[in-house]
Design goal:
The protein is α/β, with parallel strands linked by helices. Helix content is 41%, strand content 15%. The strands form 2 sheets. The chain has an 8-stranded parallel beta sheet. A two-stranded antiparallel sheet has the order 1-2.
Length: 281
């Protein structure tokens, strides 16, 4: 299989060689997992801590997308994310993504130092216009208002992401700059989520880099009967299976634990080895 390389700043994401870990930095006080931070300095410190723990990139978001969330204005979202992105950028050359679907927020975040656009609603017309003028790598997620799938959730999600990938290519982006995400927990029931997780190779076969976000999700809580902060090892289980299926990036709250999981899984599945490795050990 062709191995694609995404170059950002002085970093390279060599897809297929190992799994990359994206740390979640929520600056929305009503985050579903209870990890939202209102203080920009604490959010910056969290991002830097995640990078020290082995995160390859960090994802900054200013608006909760949990069920029943309160919609906020673009201005409030910008006020939340810009100081955090600028603060991380001032202290690190890390890869930063902005979790938004609003063109104005994206453009302001890009100016502040964000490298990647992570849109939970895929490519909308206004976003396309913004990306044509200010291109950058992007993550396109499947989402839906109502969890109904007449032709099956796997087929619909796969076809949607394939079409979104083609639209992104038409903007002049390359395959390695377009990451697709099935949107676990977004417009899907627990059974839909499990069906997608059982068929992840339907997505990895599309030819684009892939991202999976199962961290602390309600489906894990429903299976285990545990609150969000107690879902680390449930998340770890889905993460190991994601590596086996060929997922390229996992988006998580608990970076240190996830780094351990993906390193072991990568060593088994992708024959990855740490720098200090030798056959004699």
């Amino acid at each position: 299989m062709l191995r694609r390389v995404l170059k950002i700043r002085n970093r390279e994401l060599r897809f297929g060689e190992r799994t990359f870990v994206m740390g979640i930095v929520n600056v929305s006080p009503d985050s579903f997992s209870g990890d939202g931070l209102s203080d920009p300095e604490k959010a910056i410190e969290l991002a830097l801590k995640q990078l020290e723990e082995g995160a390859d990139l960090v994802d900054v978001g200013g608006q909760s997308t949990r069920p029943g969330h309160t919609q906020i204005s673009e201005e409030v979202e910008i006020e939340r994310v810009l100081p955090v992105i600028a603060g991380i950028r001032a202290r690190s050359d890390a890869i930063i993504s902005i979790d938004t679907y609003r063109p104005k927020v994206f453009l302001q975040a890009q100016k502040a130092g964000a490298d990647i656009l992570n849109s939970i609603w895929g490519l909308k017309e206004e976003l396309e216009k913004a990306l044509r003028a200010h291109p950058c790598p992007l993550i396109l997620m499947h989402n839906k208002q109502v969890a109904e799938y007449k032709n099956g959730v796997v087929d619909e999600v796969r076809d949607y992401l394939a079409e979104q990938g083609k639209r992104a290519l038409s903007l002049g982006l390359s395959h390695e700059e377009i990451v697709i995400d099935p949107g676990i927990g977004f417009g899907k029931t627990a059974d839909h989520n499990l069906e997608l997780l059982a068929n992840m190779k339907e997505l990895t076969s599309l030819g684009f880099p892939t991202l999976l976000g199962t961290s602390r999700k309600s489906t894990i809580g429903k299976i285990l009967g545990k609150d969000a902060h107690d879902r680390i090892w449930g998340t770890a289980s889905s993460t190991a299976l994601a590596v086996a299926a060929g997922i390229d990036i996992v988006r998580v709250h608990d970076v240190a634990e996830t780094v351990d999981v993906v390193r072991i899984a990568d060593a088994i599945v992708r024959k990855w080895r740490p720098a200090h490795w030798s056959e004699g050990n």
